[in-house]
Amino acid sequence: MSALQAPAQRLTWTVPTLVTSASGGENQGDFPSPELSLSSSSAQVGDLVSVQCALRPNILADAVIFCQDGKEISSQLAMPGQSLYQYNISVRSSGRFRCMYQYRINQNKVNNSCLSLPRTLNATGDFPSPTLSLSTSSAQVGDSVSAQCSLRPNSLAALVIFCQDGKEISSQLTTPGQSLYQYKISVQNSGQFRFMYQYRINQNQVNNSRLSLPWTLNVTDRSVHSGDADHSSSGSSEKKSIPD
Predict the structure, then answer these.
(1) Domain 19-124: which CATH class?
(2) What are the residue ranges spanned by the domains of the chain?
(3) 62-96 residue pLDDT tens
């Protein structure tokens, strides 16, 4: 059996601080800057937008780095002969995007290229509301009813929250790639159901989506129906006992 190979060492990416020269130019590195493009310059919050970074042919890049508002959001190892790199983002907020690449000078030194010219993405709206459905709109006390929450594809939801009459009754952590979530309700009384999801803006901030449209569940007491049935049966029996 061959010995296990140690994983390749990942380069440590360092986004350079822009230094403005006396002539008004920006000194970010030695190698020429790449070119950044967006699939759209405006989008709704929650939409998917592609960011592309194009390198000059025969550039000896080791890694390509995508940045938003001066912070690294993604890095990719460069491939020999490849000059176009893409990163897909699910839009959270407006921002300014740039990219650069890193190249190795020697075993111990990595340099940054110049940053690309910036491209601005304008985001509008809030995260869209999910869709709620109930397996039935009427039930009896003690019945089990399913509430289903449907998210848009590629949603950045971190948590799905079910509510009844404005109060949280259940929450579920989301699973990547899953857009349908279900909650079983043991019916106790009538109520209005809605749900929403939470998504992370950054490491320290979580926002709520808009609430789904409401669904009302009408509940009747099982004992009332049972009593009505008994009364109807008793009345029918008495009528049959009356002679002609």
Answers:
(1) mainly beta
(2) 19-124, 131-228
(3) 999 999 999 999 999 999 999 999 999 888 788 99
Tokens linked to 134:
């109930």
- pTM of the full structure: 0.53
CA 36, chain centre distance (Å): 24
What residues of the chain score a pLDDT lower than 50?
Answer: 1-27, 229, 231-244
**Which pair of structure tokens corresponds to residue 132?**
């709620």
Q: What is the pLDDT of residues 3-14, one digit of tens each?
A: 434 334 444 444
SS3 at position 236: helix
Cα separation, 122 vs 198, in Å, equals 22
Sheet containing 180-186, strands listed edge to edge, beginning at the edge strand earlier in sequence: 131-134, 144-150, 180-186
What does each C-alpha distance from 182 to 41, 94, 148, 211 come to in angstroms? 36, 32, 4, 16
Residue whose C-alpha is closest to residue 168's, from 139, 197, 138, 148: 197
